[in-house]
Amino acid sequence: MSDLTTVLEVAGALGGVGGFGLGYAKVCAPRVYWSLVGLPVTWGRFTVRYRSTMDVCGLTVQPSRLRAFMARNIARREVQPVPPKIRRVRGTSTGLRVSLRLPAGLEPADVAAASERLRHAWGVHSVNVVETRPGVVELRMTGYDVLKRVRMPRRIKTGPMVVPVALREDGTAFVRDYRKVPHGLTLGANQSGKSMYQRNLVKGLAKLPVGLVGIDCKRGVEQTAYAPRLSALATTPEEASRLLDVLVEEMESRFDLLSVHGVSDLWDLPESVRPVPLVVLVDEVAELFLTAAKKDEERRDRMVMQMVRLGQMARAIGIYLEVCGQRFGSELGRGATMLRAQLTGRVIHRVNDKQTAEMGLGDIAPDAVFAVTAIAPDRPGIAVAGDSSGGWSRIRTPETSPAEAAAVCREYAHLTPSLPALAPFRPAVPAEPASDDAPSLIKPQPVTD
Ligand SMILES: Nc1ncnc2c1ncn2[C@@H]1O[C@H](COP(=O)(O)OP(=O)(O)OP(=O)(O)O)[C@@H](O)[C@H]1O
Q1: Which atom of ligand 1 is nearest to the CA of 349?
Q2: Positions of the region Disordered (predicted)?
Q3: What is the DSSP letter of 401?
Q4: Tell me: the pLDDT tens digits for 47-86?
Q5: Is any ligand 1 atom within 6 A of the Cβ of residue 381?
Q6: In 3-state terms, what secondary structure has residue 357?
Q7: How many domains does the chain have?
Q8: Structural domain span for residue 129
């Protein structure tokens, strides 16, 4: 009897420790908890309840006459409504992916409309529906809130101008693919996470063979730290205006090069003559539009016109715009909405009013405006990313400190291209912070080629 009691006591203790361990893992290591407990349970629940869930969620169709006829003659049983056919079920470290072939009569929008009901039925955190091919959708379920503590997936599709920046709420990576969506706009109120987003972007871009050009008219407070990796930096509207003129000249000379080689796109040029792609990072865009005196208006108008020209034509010659600000509407002045229309890669953080959310997404993904207004103030970094296809998703960047981004820029400084036209704008490089002393500035070496 005492042996049995001991065994029960040990089993109880182990159970308690195990239960505590699982409870701890659920809160502090949700990925581990999901892999050990959530995934098998959800997979089982999905398998057992699939047909009935699809039925009650209105995701079944009446069988075809032929099927009904065959069923009557062969099986002699009542014919059931038909749910989408399961093609593949795959567990991931964040959730469960199910690929479904839709029967005639169901469309992806029907499944998307039922995603909230499916989420409750299978007890998962979220269900996102993505059309992967005509007639095939993928249900991307997440077992826990992956945006709470962001960890980027280990395997991410890369490409010559592809930068992983953030995590989507379905557990996949959100990437900026400049060849697909050449120009981007990031909006958000104070403390919404714009700088963190830019930091992640710069950290990714710094590792690619591209030239980075900074325009930061807040006296360079954000972008000076990236100096080792910047080919040019403008910190005042006057400098920005001159830099934009140079970029437009660069664009024109690149077009001449394309015409000499009889191609219409930078990426069609032979590698030996292909100029390096440039990403122009504009921080706090409103600073470029604001004018204190009448005499500044002419410069402002010219600057906006140059940016609109770059927005309209520079994709073909590999110059991409990445603009960031708090608001971007017609109140900024002439040309603002024309420029905004060119910036189709939109990332909108928490904003102060619905009107700003509409400025950001109303023209390209109107369904996403509500999602922006619903971003909670206590979750900085959450944003809604939309593009001109009308699709959108909720994203969040991993936390990256300014020191981390600056360190990556220093590490990849050797990739900074020497562009003679931009040499006058090459920023001074802050010395590596060795102590708590204020960083000193080292003047850049003159560009020789
Ligand atoms: N992805 C994120 N995850 C966690 N915390 C974040 C994230 N993004 C931003 N934050 C936090 O939110 C705060 C504000 O972020 P950030 O400075 O990027 O905002 P901002 O929009 O650039 O603000 P401002 O316009 O005032 O400069 C910071 O304390 C930052 O650590």
Answers
A1: 21
A2: 423-449
A3: -
A4: 999 999 999 999 998 876 666 666 655 554 566 788 999 9
A5: yes
A6: helix
A7: 2
A8: 25-142
